[in-house]
Amino acid sequence: MSATDVIRITHLGKDYDTDAGPVTVLRGISFSIHEGEFVAIMGPSGSGKSTLMNILGCLDTPTSGEYVLNGHSVSELDHDQLANLRNRVIGFVFQGFNLLQRATLTENVALPLVYRGVARHERNAKAESLLGKVGLASHVRSYPNKISGGQQQRVAIARSLVGDPRLILADEPTGNLDTHTSQEIMDFFTRLNREDGITVVVVTHEHDIAAYAQRLIRLVDGKIAYDGPAAAGLHEHAEVSS
Amino acid sequence: MIWAMFAEAWHAMGANRLRTFLTMLGMVIGVGAVILMLSIGQGTQQRIQDSINSMGANLFIILSGSNVAGGVRGGSGNVPTLTLQDAQALAELPAIAAVAPVSPGQAQMVYGPNNWNTTVMGTTADFLKVRDWPLKEGDTFSELDLRSATRVAIIGKTVAENLFGDENPVGKTMRIRNSPFLVIGVLASKGQSLDGRDQDDTVLVPVTTAQRKLFGTRFAGTVRYIMVEAKSAELMARAENQMNDLLRQRHRINRPEDDDFTVRNLTALADTAADTARTMSLMLGAIASVSLVVGGIGIMNIMLVSVTERTREIGIRMAIGARRRDVLGQFLLEAVLISLIGCLIGVLFGVGGGLLASHLAGLSVIISAGPIILAFAVAAAIGIFFGFYPARMAANLKPIEALRYQ
After folding, report:
1. B319 with A120: Cβ contact below 8 A
2. Domain count, chain A
3. What's the pLDDT tens digit per position in B18-72?
4. Inter-chain CB pairs, A–B, below 8 Å
């Protein structure tokens, strides 16, 4: 594998046991993502893109195949090592923001550093500087339920960045936001990718969101239907559907 | 890290104040009850111990037993068989520290316009030693007083108050059964005896005076009972054997079942009373501990609810890097905090209740550090014990399932 591969998956499969018997969601997927790439994963609902995202984020484990994240074979790691990867290598952004309602914005952003044992004043300083970077400097003492959805997603992005990750995983980050706010968020991801060289992987079902990425991976029925430049992929799909 | 965890736990407890308060209440009541019961128990035990000590240590009482005449055995004490000479002989025994023969009687006494009726005990100077009873002022009987049966008296505090009021009785002359007696001493106060009698309501006179000049008896030279103090607690059994042997020899008795005297070990009786008090105190504590356990179950219950309610929060924390032990520690700390704060309030209530009980109900209450430290240790243990299962449940959640939980 190349030294600059952040993610490499080979023949990745995932089955779920349901009451109606086992259901196969991912059928032997293989791809690599290099450092500094901006990748969009698309696909109709049920195509397995969220499952793939959860596996990439070390929240779920594959049934078969191999997943190498940042040089570590994930299946060989124990709970603590996985937690450590989530804490240090990955920054998560969710569709539903997933902020702690009881904690202030600063505390929310600083939370990943708590689990690294960083001292309080240091955590808060870093959290506040990141909140400033996402344009929420005046809200550091607010609580998540006092601000808009777009603002909450920016807090979540600040939280994902606080641990200086190499990889941002965003699962439908604009799913709950209006068009204008969505563009703001995606612009922000683009800047992170270009200026800071952070690898960004976004799961989405919207074409104009996927258009921000350089590379597109399209999943259909648990298999890769397209893996290539985003512009061509989106164009091809538009032709197929028209 | 530690402070962050405390802050988290504090936040979580503050998020649902009423519920946290009610959960704590279980611990408050449990700890309060334990502290109160142990304090009252210890107080009672102490009071009994004081009464025992006021009686004198390592004490025997020898009562004159039944006589046997032609195969007919009389009841205990129907014939006074013990004499002053018996007492003197007993005092020679090696295991015995002091001997006091007692010849008691009831008498009316007068001083000035006051009169009083109480027990007059004819005895020797050793009585004060046997009963471990110091004089407040004045002197005890001399050898001469005993030999020549002089009319001198040592009076208890109650008698002094009733006859002499504010006057100092020492050196005054009072009348017992119309005979003049010189008061040579006043006893220090001893308070109530185990059976609730006022021990200070008594007058001591030389045994010879009592026999010859106050209460003439058909059996000259006899005493009602003899009090004996052994040299030490270890020598009690040996002293008892020596006394039995000596008295049988002196009374020419061959078989133990024909004994015309009875040796009673008063300390053993007192120890039984102390044991009973200790058992009572432990039992009260044990009953109170049940409520402590119930309080612990309350904590477990609420922590289980809390884990379910906060499943999503746990998922978020895990997604951004919380390890299992971080989640475990967070919930465990919360349980222990609830338990310890409840304990602290419980201790305050227990101590307050104890003080109230001693002031309003006049109960003897001893508040000592022991039960309080114990309560904190037990509360911490309960927090850990009953908090562990819910906390482990939280820690073992799968991140993806916790995140999806609605």
Report:
1. no
2. 1
3. 999 999 999 999 999 888 888 888 888 888 777 777 777 788 889 887 655 566 6
4. 67
Closest CA to B261 of B278, B275, B243: B243
Count CB neighbours of B147 within 10 A: 10
Min distance B390 CA to chain A CA atoms (Å)? 19
Contacts of B318 in chain A (CB under 8 A): 59, 83, 86
Residue B227 to residue B248: CA distance in whole angstroms: 17
pLDDT band at B261 (very low <50, low <70, confident <90, very high): confident
- Cα A190 to the chain's mean position, in Å? 13
Query: What are the pLDDT digits (tens) for B216-226?
Result: 766 777 888 89
The Cα B99–Cα B17 span in angstroms is: 70
| B403 touches A: beta carbon within 8 Å | yes
The CATH number of whichever domain residue A102 belongs to comes to 3.40.50.300
Closest by Cβ to B323, choosing from A79, A102, A111? A79
Amino acid at B13: M
Cβ contact A98–B317 (<8 Å): no
The pairing of beta strand A5-18 with beta strand A21-34: antiparallel
The minimal CB distance from A115 to the residues B11, B322, B400 is found for B322
Cβ distance B321 to A86 less than 8 Å, yes or no, reads: yes
Q: Position of tokens 């104009």?
A: A208
List the one residue out of A30, A96, A100, A20 whose CA is nearest residue A62: A30
Distance from CA of A239 to the nearest CA of B (A): 36
- Do the Cβ atoms of A223 and A202 come closer than 8 Å? no
Judged by a CB distance cut-off of 8 A, whether residue B12 touches chain A is: yes
Q: CB contact, 8 Å: B322 with chain A?
A: yes
Structural domain of A210: 5-239
- Nearest by CB to B320, from A60, A80, A86: name it: A86
Asked whether the predicted pLDDT for residue B352 surpasses 80, the reply is yes
Max CA pair span of chain A:
56
Three-state DSSP string of chain B: CHHHHHHHHHHHHHHCHHHHHHHHHHHHHHHHHHHHHHHHHHHHHHHHHHHHHHHCCCEEEEEECCCEECCEECCCCCCCCEEHHHHHHHHCCCCEEEEEEEEEEEEEEEECCEEEEEEEEEECCHHHHHCCCCEEEECCCCHHHHHHCCCEEEECHHHHHHHHCCCCCCCCEEEECCEEEEEEEEECCCCECCCCCECCCEEEEEHHHHHHHHCCCCCCCEECEEEEEECCHHHHHHHHHHHHHHHHHHCCCCCHHHCCEEEEEHHHHHHHHHHHHHHHHHHHHHHHHHHHHHHHHHHHHHHHHHHHHCHHHHHHHHHCCCCHHHHHHHHHHHHHHHHHHHHHHHHHHHHHHHHHHHHHCCCCCCCCHHHHHHHHHHHHHHHHHHHHHHHHHHHCCCHHHHHHCC
Query: Which of A52, A55, A81, A87 best tests the B interface by mutation, with the highest count of B CBs <10 A?
Result: A87
Q: Tell me, what's the ipTM?
A: 0.91
N residues, chain A:
242
